[in-house]
Design brief:
single chain, about 90 residues, mainly alpha, 2 domains, 2 strands
Length: about 90
């Protein structure tokens, strides 16, 4: 995550030389370029913001409240429990 700033950078590097695991950085960057993503975790908040470029929150209800503030009460919000082991297609 520290190496690439955009999904295009990650994709170009993967196309040049595939490195196992680097595809995760590509998909992560692609998701955060297209969506606002919050992480409910006990991880260091500065690391969550500065390395993973996510919005840190330490409580699910607070995260949901914040999400609805961003996108409105009628919006669809996705919750991904166990996100590190879940492959999620963001397309509807």
């Amino acid at each position: 995550m520290k190496k690439y700033r955009t999904s295009d950078e990650a994709k170009k590097e993967l196309m040049r030389e595939f490195i196992m695991g680097a595809h995760k950085a590509y998909y992560h960057l692609k998701a955060i370029e297209d969506y606002t993503v919050m992480l409910v975790s006990q991880m260091d908040k500065e690391e969550v913001k500065n390395i993973f470029h996510l919005i840190p929150e330490d409580d699910v209800q607070k995260a949901l409240n914040k999400a609805f503030e961003y996108v409105g009460r009628d919006a669809k919000v996705r919750v991904v429990p166990h996100g590190t082991s879940t492959l999620l297609t963001l397309a509807e």
